[in-house]
């Protein structure tokens, strides 16, 4: 049973059917999006939106990108799925492209961010049991206010109790530390060191996305890398939201000047076609046949899409665009924060993942801003109750950034 959350009649009948038959796991906006092109979307009433959400940092090349359409059309005509019982040339080509454009040596493919993180968690545990032989009970440290997914292991890894509530018992072997706090890591490693119960991995986002668009500190990450080098603890980066050009670099870790031992990708990797990937360096490539698998993982269709996304990023100056548009966006957001000093705390982000934080004591929530902006034709996403997130397609133009921020200004003028 559902309670009606609809506030408008637009497409109401369709949405009543939807609510009757689809499980009620999302707080949805009363909008039905029907088509898209570039950074624009249209709903069933013909209303146009400028898309600063990109399917939650996923539609790297925007909507209806001709190169992506061609790649997936050609691939589905040829072959779309055969399973990993056989060699898949597109999967091999994609793995090669990722390895050539990152610090990784090997890739495992799956279908989502949570699955990629599950694979990373399993790899750390196998490494602990086989390489760090003394480890009976390997522990993975994760950060408070992190987000790593919705499976049981990944809600456990997620350092936010609201995602765990009512799903206990959680998976053993995780402990939490505050983000960007090196002494907390050092203390946790010492505290947990009891015989065979030891820290085997540190899993962390280079920039916390869902947790409020919080970039990692350079110095913190350098010291994290040093601790891992000195102790043999594995450093795992969850790049599900920040990887694949989102930050203006190919990978989030490039902003921090350190390389992880293992990292994961999903959201933007195939531009909106479901895919996940877990990458590792040669020294922690400990999986053997039968250790891990995914029926859909790395199928020809998803890999053809991801290959086209990576080729387009490489050949069409996308990273430069992300850097320039990100600067432009932050400059305009900072002007807004200055204009409303009682409303906003700060603007932060890298490339085209940015957030504006509302002051804790301001009577305004991120969702109010998002709803009002949507009425005015701009799609935004919250990142927690007090941060509004800006993650447009990476192909966004200078005019579209200005257009979006103009709408945001009108939105705030209405709300203030
Ligand atoms: C979205 C996200 C996930 C989960 O990805 P799914 O594809 O929804 O499973 C994991 N980690 C981070 C950092 C994310 O942003």
Characterization of this structure:
- With 416 residues, this protein is of the alpha/beta class.
- The protein has two domains: 3-64 and 317-415, Alpha-Beta Complex (Aspartate Aminotransferase, domain 1); 67-315, Type I PLP-dependent aspartate aminotransferase-like (Major domain) (Aspartate Aminotransferase, domain 2, 3-Layer(aba) Sandwich).
- It is built from twelve helices and 17 strands.
- The protein has a seven-stranded mixed β-sheet with strand order 4-12-11-10-7-5-6, sandwiched between helices. A four-stranded mixed β-sheet has the order 1-2-3-15. The chain has a four-stranded antiparallel β-sheet with strand order 13-14-17-16, with helices on one face.
- Helix 3 (66-78) runs antiparallel to helix 9 and helix 4 packs parallel to helix 9 (300-315).
- The longest helix is centred in the C-terminal third of the chain and has 22 residues, at 318-339.
- Pyridoxal-5'-phosphate is lined by residues 112-114, 117, 147-149, 205, 209-210, 238, 240-241, 266-267.
Put the structure in a nutshell.
This protein is of the alpha/beta class and about 425 residues long. It is built from 12 helices and 17 strands. It has a 7-stranded mixed beta sheet, with helices on both faces. A 4-stranded mixed beta sheet has the order 1-2-3-15.
CATH topology of the largest domain: Aspartate Aminotransferase, domain 2
The CATH homologous superfamily of the largest domain is called: Type I PLP-dependent aspartate aminotransferase-like (Major domain)
The overall pLDDT average reads: 96
Strand order of the largest sheet: 4-12-11-10-7-5-6
- Principal-axis shape equals globular
Q: Tell me which CATH architecture of the largest domain applies here.
A: 3-Layer(aba) Sandwich
Q: Name the beta content range.
A: 15-25%
Number of helices: 12
